[in-house]
Amino acid sequence: MKDATVHLEKGLVCAPIGALTSLTSGNSNTGVTSPPINDQGPIIDCVLTPWSQWTPCSRSCGSARKERRREIKLNAQNGGKACPKRLVQRRKCKDNPDCDQLPVDCKMGSWGEWSTCSKTCDGQGFRFRQRSISVNASNGGIACGPQFNREICENFRPCY
């Protein structure tokens, strides 16, 4: 098979016309040799797709793996070279940081309801609301925003 050219198109095996016109090996008129043949027909080796790209690591920190795959395009026929059993390669992700060294961003709860205005009459007062911290920032993560919020409220009703 080393002197024959085999092309794959949509799962079909195609050979040059010269290889089909002469089934004797080494036709001196054309310089074309046919693929090796046994009792069942032409011997065809397994054909595989190229390896895929490596997947991202299974975790962003700590022990993780990545993998790549390939598929069988054409199984071996008539005693040709068999396809490999392993079509998946796996590797450890060596550059992953330790999980306890990753930055952790602050997470905050929702704002609570506004309080009543501090002034019930005669002018300007304030009202407040607050929220809790669910997760504190660590290892350089994004810091928490304010826990308390204040705004001006006005009450023009006269006091008696």
UniProtKB/TrEMBL annotation:
Q: What is this protein called?
A: Spondin-like TSP1 domain-containing protein
Q: Which GO terms describe its cellular component?
A: extracellular matrix
Q: Which InterPro entries match?
A: Spondin/Thrombospondin_T1 (IPR051418), TSP1_rpt (IPR000884), TSP1_rpt_sf (IPR036383), TSP1_spondin_dom (IPR044004)
Source species, please?
Answer: Medioppia subpectinata
Q: Where is the Spondin-like TSP1 domain?
A: 46-99, 106-157
User: Where does the source fall among the domains of life?
Assistant: Eukaryota
Q: Which UniProt keywords apply?
A: Disulfide bond, Glycoprotein, Signal
> What PROSITE patterns does the record point to?
TSP1
The organism's taxonomy opens as: Eukaryota, Metazoa, Ecdysozoa, Arthropoda, Chelicerata
Output the PANTHER family linked to this UniProt entry. SPONDIN, SPONDIN-1
Identify the Gene3D superfamilies for this entry: Thrombospondin type-1 (TSP1) repeat (2.20.100.10)
Please name the Pfam families in this protein's record.
TSP1_spondin
> Which SUPFAM superfamilies does the annotation name?
TSP-1 type 1 repeat
Q: Name one GO biological process term.
A: cell adhesion
